[in-house]
C-alpha cells in the first residue's frame, strides 16, 4: 500500500499533524509533504482548516473510503500469498442483534470444525469505526448510518416496541406520543442504534427527550429491563430482545414506524463478501 495513503489514514484518525507524525514515525514536515503530494496527484484538497480545527473535505472522504478498502484487501492478499489459513472470522453486532438475531447463524457456522470466529458486541458507531479501520470483516447493525459508504445487505426487519411494567397503564395498548410526557425513560448510550431510532421517531413527531420526566442511560439490556419491570420507567427496544421476558409488558406508539432494518455491512470493493456468504451460507 502506498505509504502516503497510510499516512493519510492516520491523519484521518487523529486530525492532527503532530500526532500523526508520532504514529507513523515521520517528522511533521514529512507528513505535510506526503499529504500535499496526494493533493497534487489527485488535483484536489483533502483537508482544510476551519478556524484552528482540521477537517476532511468531501474529496478526502472519498479517498478515505478507497484507502480503507485497499488496506483491507492488502491484508487479505498477504495472507493468501503466504498460504496461511485464514484467521478467525471477525464480525461485529450491535447488542440488540448479538443477543438474539445471530444465534442460529453462530451455531451453524461453528458446527464446522474448520471455522472459528470472534464476535465484538458494541454500538453502531463503534462497530462502523472498527469496520473502517479494517479490524472487522463485516458487522450487523441497526439504526442510522451512511449506507452509501458501504456494501449493505438486509438481514431482516424487526418490530420496535415500547416496554413497561406488567401493571403499567400502557401495557398491551397503543398510545399517542403526548402520553409519554412525564414518564421516566431508560435509554441506551449515545451511538446506540436503538437510541438513534427512538430519537428519530420522537423528532418526526415534533418532540425530543425533554418530553420525559427523567432520562437514564443504561448500556446493558438486563438492568434496563429489570428497572422497567420494577415500575421505575419505560423504554423502547426490539421485540426479539423482550419477547422471552415474562416480567415486562409491551406497548406501541401511535404514528411511528413499527419495523426497522437489521443490516449486514462491509467495506466496498473488498473480498469481505466471501466471509459474509460463508457465515450466512448464501
Automatic annotation (TrEMBL):
Ranges of residues in domain HTH lysR-type: 1-57
Where are the annotated coiled coils located?
Answer: none
Ordered alphabetically, the record's keywords are: DNA-binding, Transcription, Transcription regulation
Protein name, UniProt field: HTH-type transcriptional regulator CysL
Q: Which family does it belong to?
A: Belongs to the LysR transcriptional regulatory family.
Q: Which Gene3D superfamilies match?
A: Periplasmic binding protein-like II, Winged helix-like DNA-binding domain superfamily/Winged helix DNA-binding domain
**Pfam family of this protein, just one?**
LysR_substrate
Q: Which gene encodes it?
A: cysL_20
Keyword field contains Transcription regulation: yes
Q: Which is an annotated GO molecular function term of this record?
A: DNA-binding transcription factor activity
Amino acid at each position: 500500500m502506498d505509504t502516503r495513503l497510510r499516512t493519510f489514514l492516520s491523519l484521518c484518525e487523529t486530525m492532527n499533524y503532530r500526532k500523526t507524525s508520532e504514529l507513523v514515525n515521520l517528522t511533521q514536515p514529512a507528513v505535510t509533504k506526503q499529504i500535499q503530494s496526494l493533493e497534487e496527484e489527485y488535483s484536489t484538497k483533502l483537508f482544510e482548516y476551519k478556524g484552528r480545527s482540521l477537517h476532511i473535505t468531501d474529496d478526502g472522504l472519498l479517498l478515505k473510503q478507497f484507502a480503507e478498502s485497499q488496506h483491507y484487501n492488502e491484508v487479505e492478499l498477504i495472507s493468501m500469498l503466504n498460504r496461511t489459513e485464514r484467521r478467525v472470522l471477525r464480525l461485529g453486532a450491535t447488542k440488540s442483534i448479538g443477543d438474539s438475531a445471530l444465534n442460529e447463524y453462530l451455531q451453524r457456522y461453528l458446527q464446522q470444525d474448520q471455522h472459528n470466529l470472534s464476535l465484538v458486541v458494541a454500538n453502531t458507531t463503534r462497530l462502523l469505526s472498527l469496520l473502517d479501520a479494517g479490524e472487522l470483516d463485516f458487522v450487523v447493525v441497526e439504526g442510522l448510518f451512511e449506507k452509501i459508504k458501504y456494501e449493505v445487505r438486509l438481514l431482516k426487519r424487526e418490530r420496535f416496541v415500547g416496554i413497561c411494567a406488567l401493571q403499567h397503564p400502557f401495557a398491551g395498548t397503543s398510545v399517542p406520543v403526548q402520553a409519554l410526557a412525564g414518564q421516566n425513560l431508560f435509554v441506551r448510550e449515545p451511538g446506540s442504534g436503538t437510541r438513534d431510532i427512538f430519537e428519530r421517531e420522537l423528532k418526526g413527531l415534533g418532540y425530543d427527550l425533554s418530553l420525559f420526566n427523567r432520562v437514564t442511560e443504561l448500556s446493558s439490556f438486563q438492568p434496563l429491563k429489570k428497572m422497567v419491570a420494577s415500575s421505575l420507567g419505560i423504554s423502547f427496544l426490539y421485540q426479539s430482545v423482550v419477547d422471552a421476558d415474562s416480567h415486562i409488558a409491551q406497548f406501541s406508539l401511535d404514528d411511528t414506524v413499527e419495523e426497522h432494518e437489521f443490516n449486514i455491512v462491509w467495506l466496498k470493493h473488498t473480498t469481505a463478501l466471501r466471509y459474509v456468504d460463508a457465515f450466512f451460507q448464501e
